[in-house]
Amino acid sequence: MNNSILLVALFGVAVVCAAPGAHKLRNRAPPKAGCVQPAYTESLSEENQKKLTEIWKDYKVGGTCYIEQAKTSELLDSLPEKEREELLARPPIPAFFAGIKRETILQFDAIYFNDTIAFPDKLKQLDELAEKILPAENLKVYKEFREQRDAVRKNYADLLAKLSPAAKEADAKVEAMIAERFAYVDNLDEKVRAELFELWDARPSEPK
């Protein structure tokens, strides 16, 4: 998987996985509090860019986005085969990396992939690097994005803190099941995964 996708994951941006059909699997997971308009907007045709922007135009940071996620999933499923294939084959990058050389992006990757750096320290170092090397316009987008993500994280932390003991226990169990599910799929034989992705990709959107 492209490093830029993993860097996006650090900030919690919703992305389409490079593996065919992978979005089908991920769409089955309960939506998180972290909701933003997908980073791949600019990879769509002009018409579908407008549709996706329309879906997310009324979303307020910190709110739930079940409707937006559902409509986004429907839009992806409705894409012409060629456009969808091109989207899946072209990993998206964060908007603040638009027009940035790969050598610069790799400097951000070097921080993200350093397992010896704690998450809060990674964010601090990424902020410092952004201030140092991103052009003014990109830096502006980066800061706006970071503010949005910080607001989402705070909202999630606040909601988590307010959960009843029973809800906290249930949340922990659901998170564990989701992690186990993805781990199980990741450990399958590559050919078996390909068969499953093809099956999930063809699955009707209506409930069973």
TrEMBL record:
Keywords: Signal. This is SXP/RAL-2 family protein Ani s 5-like cation-binding domain-containing protein. Residues 1-18 form the signal peptide. It comes from the Eukaryota. It comes from Caenorhabditis angaria. The lineage of its organism: Eukaryota, Metazoa, Ecdysozoa, Nematoda, Chromadorea.
